[in-house]
Amino acid sequence: MPVRLGRYTLLLPSMPGISGYAAVAGKKEGEGPLGSAFDYIYEDGTAGEKSWEKAESIIHRDAVTRAISKAGVSPQDADVIFAGDLLNQCTGSTFGIRDMGIPFAGIYGACSTMALSLAMASVWIDSRVCDIAVASTSSHFCSAEKQFRMPLEYGGQRTPTSQWTATAAGAAVVSKNECKAKIEKVIVGRIQDYGIKDPNNMGAAMAPAACRTIADFLRDTNTNPSDYDMILTGDLGSVGSELLCELMIKQENIDISSVHEDCGLMIYDTSVQKDTGAGGSGCGCSAAVLCSDILRRIENGELKKVFFVGTGALMSGISTLQSESIPAVAHGVLLTGG
Amino acid sequence: MPVRLGRYTLLLPSMPGISGYAAVAGKKEGEGPLGSAFDYIYEDGTAGEKSWEKAESIIHRDAVTRAISKAGVSPQDADVIFAGDLLNQCTGSTFGIRDMGIPFAGIYGACSTMALSLAMASVWIDSRVCDIAVASTSSHFCSAEKQFRMPLEYGGQRTPTSQWTATAAGAAVVSKNECKAKIEKVIVGRIQDYGIKDPNNMGAAMAPAACRTIADFLRDTNTNPSDYDMILTGDLGSVGSELLCELMIKQENIDISSVHEDCGLMIYDTSVQKDTGAGGSGCGCSAAVLCSDILRRIENGELKKVFFVGTGALMSGISTLQSESIPAVAHGVLLTGG
Questions:
Q1: Which residues on A lie below 8 Å from B94 (Cβ)?
Q2: Which of A1, A94, A189 has the CB atom closest to B314's CB atom?
Q3: B116: which chain A residues are within 8 Å (Cβ-Cβ)?
Q4: In this complex, which of A54, A95, A318 lies closest to B88 when CB atoms are compared?
Q5: Where are the beta strands (DSSP E) in B70-192?
Q6: CA distances from A146 to A88, A143, A155, A309, B8 (A)
Q7: Which residues contact B153 (CB under 8 A, 6 or more apart)?
Q8: Measured CA distances, B310 to B2, B32, B246, B331 (Å)
Q9: Do B51 and A322 touch (CB under 8 A)?
Q10: Distant-in-sequence, close-in-space partners of B283: CB < 8 Å, separation ≥ 6
Q11: Are A205 and B98 spatial neighbours (Cβ–Cβ below 8 Å)?
Q12: Which of A166, A232, A306, B332 is the most buried (most CB within 10 A)?
């Protein structure tokens, strides 16, 4: 049963385990540094479908199906799936999993969705609410650009601060069984809004939320950055990552720079894949990085303690047009060796 | 700690309580049969804002603020808020509550959001994950029409099967303290898709999901419709309600007609308010009906056992244009006298 540490952090004494995980990705992500870590690369971004939205549902379902299979169970065994995505009304997930018959608790955390879904799933497992919970999310570059920014056909210029929405999906099966990694603590974030209005600079909008959650967590757990092998944000990109490290020092007097990594900076080689700008983003980015390279390194014993902090910008295309600022949230999950 | 009953239902032995609830609504809802039950009526649908979206955020925040105040606590006391809405990227809730500093777990269940948020909140309370959890949602006729169907200015004809998205918000505070109603059981629904493609007939799309969840719940709990004072769906409207009762008999051989009520049929007097078509809909409809009339009647002892089944159609404006069918989900919460 979860135990509260400090004001915001939950300790999960039973240490729910990730018994299966999978990540699938598109061609560009396959060409990135983690290409060989993904379970499957879709060379064709349409996944054989007639629309980008339908393609996203296909890759979402694929990641869920693979994770469940790798956990050695079947969809009928799953008690609940916590899933969501960036598409309007979360159709990437709902249409992707609609035929699977798993009780569906829809969640929304923008690009923080993988962390939120893992937090929700692991709390349920630790509370013995259920035996097998699935956490999943996805994003698709083409469906996201069309929805949040410009139609692809417009060929709009990208600013240097803009991030590249990953075409990718990730899923993890959380259970109390034998596992590949354990979830020891979780923290649900508080919304931060520093007045950033530029939808092409999500890193700047999300950095304050990451700062808030990391500071809350370290204070609640009475730990320091050096107690972790990695504090992994997803996805601040280069601009947001720099801002986060600065904010952590200026606001909180905590230096995380020696252990900080960012999923948005891991999924592409921005020096070669120049169009990826400040790095990757999108729900699928941190989901695919976590559910491939990171969990594998935890499973192998290479990483022992990873504090994964999903970051989400909570704006919409409409709120941007209405000159609203961009609220952001960051949820955290502490992963440890199995 | 929750106990599983059958395959899908959770019994919450500690019976989490609703210690405060509030509903605010627009002018048309104020003129309906429940007008006097709402905490506040916004005569001006803009709520003094420059856009319908901003207005929805205002009414969302208002409902949350009132519910928290009526529970006798302050926002700083709240450990978590489970909130979501129909707007793209759930900005009704995120922008509404962004300044409140409450840890935010975003959820998405379309019009089933009130039931999903109550289910999530009560599971956390029963598992002693936290002491005070808020559940909330909202919808606005004008923001929803613009987003899902036609710009209001277009003056499109409405079909008789179409439902009227309520301008309303509802919120409930769930805790283990002294309470006005208790949450005894919850069920997370499974997505159903019967191939309905008409976005002007949401009742038909959602009825199968309600049927699935009600049948699962009755089987899991080994109960009959007559064991309940009310099986309250939200929001099937007249078309969906008739279909639900038919489906329950034909598919499940269960007659719920004597105890079935629908929030969409309670919020308007469709015989007088003729433009409301087949009845109300939108996240705010069932939220406002539940968090006013229904919870008050439970508090007064008039109703002892209400099985509230929120129904949500999981399509988007884009999926409709892409000729997709409409998946739906229904989540259930059993409310009993305090």
A1: 191, 314, 327, 329
A2: A94
A3: 105-106
A4: A318
A5: 80-85, 104-106, 132-139, 164-165, 168-175, 181-187
A6: 11, 5, 11, 27, 38
A7: none
A8: 21, 21, 18, 5
A9: yes
A10: B84, B85, B86, B92, B110, B111, B113, B114, B137, B138, B139
A11: no
A12: A166
Question: CA–CA distance from B55 to each of B42, B49, B58 (Å)?
Answer: 10, 6, 5
Q: Would you give per-residue pLDDT tens digits along chain B (338 residues)?
A: 999 999 999 999 999 999 999 999 999 999 999 999 999 999 999 999 999 999 999 999 999 999 999 999 999 999 999 999 999 999 999 999 999 999 999 999 999 999 999 999 999 999 999 999 999 999 999 999 999 888 888 888 889 899 999 999 999 999 997 789 999 999 999 999 999 999 899 999 999 999 999 999 999 999 999 999 999 999 999 999 999 999 999 999 999 999 999 999 999 999 999 899 999 999 999 999 999 999 999 999 999 999 999 999 999 999 999 999 999 999 999 999 96
Q: Taken in order A108, B320, A316, A279, is the CA torsion positive or negative?
A: positive
> Which tokens go with A58?
């296909």
Q: B36, B312, B328, B43: which is closest to B167 by C-alpha?
A: B43
> Cα–chain-centroid distance for residue B294?
12
The letter for the amino acid at A171 is A
With 0-12 / 13-18 / 19 or more C-beta atoms within 10 angstroms meaning exposed / middle / buried, residue B50 is: exposed
Quote the tokens at residue A263. Answer: 């999923």
Q: Which residues in chain A have their CB less than 8 angstroms from residue B187's CB?
A: 103
Structure tokens at B209: 């999901």
- For residue B227, which amino acid is it? D
Looking at residue A165, the DSSP 8-state letter turns out to be E
**Residues β-bridged to residue A87:** none
Question: What's the predicted TM-score (pTM) here?
Answer: 0.98
The alpha carbon of residue A96 is apart from the nearest alpha carbon of chain B, in Å, by: 11
> Which of the residues B187, B188, B322 would you substitute to probe the A interface, choosing the one with the greatest number of A C-beta atoms within 10 Å?
B188
Bridge-based pairing of strands B260-262 and B132-139 is unpaired
The ipTM of this complex is 0.98
Q: Which segments of A244-304 are extended strands (E)?
A: 260-262, 280-281
- CA A189 and chain centroid, separation: 14
